[in-house]
Amino acid sequence: MQIPRKTGLIIIAALIIAAIIYGFLPKPVSVETVNIKKGYMKVDIEEEGRTRVMNRFIVSAPVAGYALRINLNVGDLVNKGDAITQLEPLRSNVLDPRNRAAAEASIKAAKANALAAKADSEFAQKELDRTKALYKDGLVSEEKLDAANAEALGRGAALRSSEFSVEVAQYELEAADTALKYSTALETGEQMEKVMIKSPVSGYVLKVNHESEGVVQGGEALVEIGDPKMLEVEVDVLSADAVRIRPGTPVLFERWGGESPLKGKVRVVEPTGFTKISALGVEEQRVLVISDIISPPEEWKALGDGYRVEAGFILWEAEGVLQVPSSALFRYDDGWAVFVMKGKKALLRKVDLGRRNGLSAQVISGLIEGDTVITHPDSSIKNGTSVTSY
After folding, report:
1. pLDDT tens sequence across 214-256
2. How many Å apart are CA 231 and CA 51, to the nearest integer?
3. Gap between the Cα atoms of 312 and 45, Å rounded
């Protein structure tokens, strides 16, 4: 049956009108979405730092004299009492005997600190042993065990540091005795023997300050000795960030060259700051934060003095946190809001936020797990806008 000509024209006209109307209808906006979920979240401060030997000792000339060549290279192992060089004293001014009294006071203070550190270390070790037993019986958490282990490691490092200080103070006392002896010889006109300068501690040569033979002044640095196995990490942070960091704050050291991050703990936040010019030429107030590495030494044995690390000071962390990407948030009525995708519509939703770390924010209210939010919303998206996810 043929369609009447008039009817056919009407149908064609209707189709054309429908096509025109459809063409002018607003098309759904293509958007990127993400599902809200719970997970681990942390708030941290990230800065670049460097390692340094914890106990660095500078061997210096006790008196002015003519020093022989130092036949040591950086990295050489020296033991306590090994000869560094010989020094032929020059005629100089009489030295003050009060230096010896000061050295005696230093060694007494160092020994007292060593006794206190030993007691702290023994107590921490006992606490660790007790915690291990409780953990074995299922009475304490793994976090408690890790904390006790970290405390024992930290106290052990403090003990070794204080013992090193005793050795240094003993060397300073011997240096004062040497200086006093040779100054007395100058007064009486006695023949002066050469001074044998020995290493006060066992360790590795970190720097040779005066390699060639020649005249040196009293107190001039000759070599630097330390143990690269005893490292700490210094990081300069903005003063505004330093006030949020406390001794004991956990640290994660990343991008140091190893396969996995290293754990650490803040020991000292220095009380004074300094001015530093940033790469952009802006003056910044910075503060040094000193941290200990508490991961097992075998994990970071390749680290040395002056190596670069990236430190993340963990101010807060928690599991099972409902969080939303920062890219989905925007300001709305003095608060925060997101666009939730329901069906094919974008619906505006106000949210209350908790902790933020730059990448995501903790959701207190306004969203539930499984909600789909639009990230990077532009000005074309309004409440009720048709959207499609790509």
Report:
1. 888 877 889 999 888 889 999 999 999 999 999 989 999 999 9
2. 6
3. 5
pTM of the entire structure?
A: 0.65
pLDDT tier for residue 127 given thresholds of 50, 70 and 90: confident
Q: Considering the domain boundaries, does residue 16 fall inside one?
A: no
**In the numeric block, which tokens belong to residue 321?**
């946190």
User: Residue 369 in 3-state DSSP?
Assistant: coil
pLDDT in tens, 314-372: 999 999 999 999 999 999 988 999 999 998 899 999 999 999 998 999 999 999 999 99
Residue 122: inside a domain? yes
**Cα 147 from Cα 131, distance rounded (Å):** 10
Domain end among 256, 287, 318: 318
Domain stop point among 299, 318, 337? 318
Q: How far apart are CA 354 and CA 364, in angstroms?
A: 6
* Residues 190, 250 within the same domain: no
CATH number at residue 211: 2.40.50.100
3-state secondary structure of 210: coil
Short-list 245, 255, 225, CA closest to 291: 245
